[in-house]
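Collaborator request, handled under Task 6.
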Amino acid sequence: MKLNLKWTLMLLACVVFMNACNDDDDGIYSGKPSTTTEQAFQRDFPTAEYVTWSKKKGYDVAKFTLPATRVAGSFEHTAWYPEGTDQNAYTKMEISWDRLQAEAPLVAEAWLASIYKAEGYELDDEIDVRTYAGQDPQYKLEAERGEVEYDLIYTKEGVLVSATLDDDDSDEELEDEPCPVQILDFIKVHFPEARIDESSFEQEFGYKLFVVEIEEMIEGRMVESELLFSDKFDFWRMVREVEDADIAKLPAALLDNMRQVAPETDWDEVIVAYDVDGVELGYYLIVEIEDEATDREEEHLYEFGLDGVLIKQIA
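Structure tokens returned to the collaborator:
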């Protein structure tokens, strides 16, 4: 399952290099791709129909249909090529339930056995298949019950990566797009074996942060991390949540100082921050306290140095 992003939003308050007043600019405009890119697209999707091109996030983006899927429904697909190149970096394909059962039966079985299915949620007619070049596809199923909708992301093996309550204020189209070219290139260089799960802008306190969730195999186990970038796509740091079983392995001075802030029963998350090379930069503690008078939960975020000393309360 994905890491909890609530602390990411609070961390925004201490990102000093961000521009608090940037206007949103998706940078999308129409434009014919280079001959190199257009020929590559024709090579990759020789039966594509109703093709239109645009430019976004440093990509040439083709929107198209395929004869087989068009007969089954009005499915649209997108293919993303870094501008001027002949390499497809990302695709989003829309498929039907029948196609899912044939292409990824473990995903179909996982949905049928899921708690969402058991609780009466129904699937949207369109299922998105999102694939970064060189990585296995991920399947996005939209489960609806009345006014409530969840976005469920599965691996091809039927493993549920994330279940996110769909917010009416979120831009679903942006959520299904790849990382900007600059960030994708950064990940290829510094985290070449990582699998990209999700990426999106987060905003709080007037600041914007681009968050990329990745998974990579470290010492024989799959480790989840989040890469944090400024709204200009400059890398800030990598953060990982400490598993409950590993908290006791943290430095004794850190644990003692965290206990002075709050008892362990009130600890919600402990996070370690790293630089791009995996060198530890410091620690964060999220404390969750229930106000018995109002029956509301309050969350506070504390920053600690490598020596375990409390630096400040951020929120």
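The cover message to the collaborator said: "The longest strand covers residues 207-218. Confidence is low (pLDDT under 50) at residues 16-27. Please let us know whether this matches your experimental observations."
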